[in-house]
Design brief:
Layout lengths: L2 H9 L4 H24 L22 H10 L1 H9 L11 H26 L9 H19 L1 H17 L6 H14 L28 H25 L7 H22 L11 H17 L4 H22 L5 H5 L9 H27 L11
Helix pairs in contact: 1-7, 2-4, 3-6, 4-5, 4-6, 5-6, 6-7, 8-9, 8-14, 9-11, 9-12, 12-14
Length: 377
């Protein structure tokens, strides 16, 4: 059986429009990411002094060009991915070329608009090199999904999604929310399952005893609540046979591994130990034990308990969080290139808004129709 026919067989009960909506939702979220990265901090607007967008720069930094190309890869991929139609997710050569041109021009137009707006922001420099690099990134991203190897990989991903994840309403939005969580973990200055930054622990509280009960218990409780909420959310997204402890442990391991890797690359040496505090160890263990007690509860009630744990964990995280100034948080990093402030600010906002989005998603899933495998519960 061919790869396309196998995909069509698995997707037979699921309309292709669902996948198209997932591409559209992901594209909308990623455009918001580009808006933030291009226009943050959204303050200090003034009359532009000179339109540098029309001036070719004297010096070109290869790393900046690379970042601008990579930044628009997902944009081109997601926009062109919406063109794939049918249960087999195939597209003709003519339509593929048309959508490749559309994605490239759309990437160039969005970049041109954002670069023009940057000329009104102090500290931001618009450049025609950035526009060309962004357009190239969108073109490469579109090509990655429109060519046969890209379509093959996409079909494999779609098959994997419907094999392991539930068909319940809003699950695709839940998967996007998980992706947001994983991206937020790439900021090593954000404690895992906590709010704020780690800066205070190494400045005002440098002599603080991390085993002091008044320090350890509130932090461990907040982390435990958030770990339980995360585990319950993941369990309601998975198909019934897979909604167990192992996928949760794997997801947490991937998130923690990404944070440790980024800490080794970006943070100054004294801050590396902050990625694994005693409160984190106790909190993660306590959260997993709580999830074990709740993992066999009916799907709808896991949504209910998950929303309660998200709310409680969010409140507790805010109560015990450390919020230094943004400038002091940047001092934790050892990164000689640009884009650090945008990366840090974007991932911080992802981490801050994640509990609210998870609460809304779980509450919506609670009142929606459960998946067919859970109807008898």
């Amino acid at each position: 059986m061919s790869d396309a026919s196998s995909t069509a067989r698995i997707l037979q009960p699921h309309p292709p429009a669902a996948a198209s909506r997932a591409f559209g939702g992901a594209l909308f979220l990623y455009v918001l990411v580009l808006l933030y990265a291009s226009l943050a901090p959204f303050s200090g607007w003034s009359d532009e002094q000179s339109l540098t967008l029309l001036d070719w720069p004297r010096y070109i930094v290869p790393f900046d060009v690379f970042i601008n190309v990579v930044a628009y890869l997902p944009f081109g991929y997601l926009l062109a991915g919406r063109a794939l139609r049918g249960q087999s997710f195939e597209i003709s050569t003519r339509d593929g070329l048309r959508w490749w041109i559309i994605a490239t021009l759309a990437g160039a137009a969005l970049s041109l608009l954002l670069e023009f707006l940057q000329s009104y922001l102090p500290g931001r420099v618009s450049s025609p090199v950035d526009v060309l690099a962004n357009a190239m990134g969108a073109a490469i991203g579109a090509m990655a999904v429109l060519l046969s190897p890209g379509q093959h990989l996409l079909r494999r991903a779609i098959v994997w999604r419907y094999r392991y994840f539930s068909t319940a309403p809003l699950v695709d939005w839940g998967l996007l929310l998980l992706l947001v969580w994983f991206v937020a973990q790439l900021n090593p200055a954000i404690p895992m399952f906590e709010a704020g930054f780690i800066a205070i622990a190494f400045q005002d509280g440098a002599a603080q005893n991390v085993y002091d009960a008044w320090v350890l218990l509130p932090q461990a409780l907040g982390i435990a609540l958030n770990v339980t909420a995360f585990a319950l959310l993941l369990s309601v997204l998975l198909r019934a046979p897979f909604s167990s402890l192992l996928p949760v442990v794997i997801a947490l391991g991937i998130g923690f591994g990404a944070k440790v890797l980024m800490a080794s690359l970006l943070l100054k040496a004294p801050q590396l130990v902050s990625t694994l505090s005693p409160a984190s160890v106790f909190g993660v263990c306590g959260g997993l034990l709580t999830f074990v007690l709740l993992q066999h509860v009916a799907w709808r009630w896991r949504c209910f308990w998950g929303s309660l744990f998200v709310f409680a964990g969010g409140v507790m995280a805010k109560l015990v969080a450390a919020y230094p100034t943004f400038e002091s948080a940047l001092k934790l990093f050892n990164w000689p290139y640009g884009q650090l402030a945008n990366f840090t600010g974007l991932t911080r906002w992802m981490n801050e808004i994640w509990p609210l989005l998870a609460l809304l998603l779980l509450a919506s899933m609670f009142v929606s129709r459960p998946p067919s495998s859970e109807q008898s519960e």
